[in-house]
Amino acid sequence: MVYRYLLFHKPYDAVCQFSPSDRPDQQTLKDYIDVPEVYPVGRLDRDSEGLLLLTNNGALQHRLCHPRFGHDRTYWVQVEREPTEAALQALRQGVQIQDYRTRPAKVQRLDDPQIPERDPPIRFRKTVPTAWLALTLQEGRNRQVRRMTAAVGHPTLRLIRAAIATHPDQPPLQLQGLAPGTWRDLTAIECRRLESLLR
């Protein structure tokens, strides 16, 4: 079998499925990707944007999604107000959300990233400043990043997955260079790195 590996920049309001949605006007992966039999490795919510890896290699899909293997995923998160160092430290140590405590995360302040405007734009309020964070997790529960920032008092306004690490000592797969709604095949080097995970 010939394996395919694609990187896709999921735009806001598209859902991570190829099958038709309940809403007739809802965009799905099928509106952007015409490669048969590939499926997303993990998901992004409808209101999240950014990097999505797709493949037809089921074993690799499992390897990258299972939290036991600890692959970093980095998100750029625009939040309401400027977080204090105490709020950032709480995110780093792990926070209680719903019925579980998140694993420790890497968190740092981020200068405004060079990214396209969102359509529609985020809610803007003159009296409420915003800040960007780079947040790196090794787990990906449903709406986890949004729940984490809300737990420390800083609701998420915009959420973009920027990178997916496959090896701790090698460069991650990155969003850079992909416009919203576009995709590319992985390079031969990137494919070899991915497939080496299964050896």
From TrEMBL:
Q: Which InterPro entries match?
A: PsdUridine_s_RsuA/RluB/E/F_cat, PsdUridine_synth_cat_dom_sf, PsdUridine_synth_RsuA/RluA, PsdUridine_synth_RsuA/RluB/E/F, PsdUridine_synth_RsuA/RluB_CS, RsuA_PseudoU_synthase, TruA/RsuA/RluB/E/F_N
Where does the record place the Pseudouridine synthase RsuA/RluA-like domain? 5-151
One example of the protein's molecular function in GO is: catalytic activity, acting on RNA
Q: Which Pfam families match?
A: PseudoU_synth_2 (PF00849)
Look at the named UniProt entry and state the broad enzyme category this protein falls under. Answer: isomerase
Arranged from A to Z, the UniProt key words for this protein are:
Isomerase
The UniProt entry's GO biological process terms, in alphabetical order, are: pseudouridine synthesis; rRNA processing
The lineage's top-level taxon is Bacteria
EC no. given is 5.4.99.-
The UniProt entry, under SUPFAM superfamilies, shows: Pseudouridine synthase
Family, according to the entry, reads as follows: Belongs to the pseudouridine synthase RsuA family.
NCBIfam families noted in UniProt: pseudouridine synthase
Protein's name in the database: Pseudouridine synthase
Native organism is Synechococcus leopoliensis
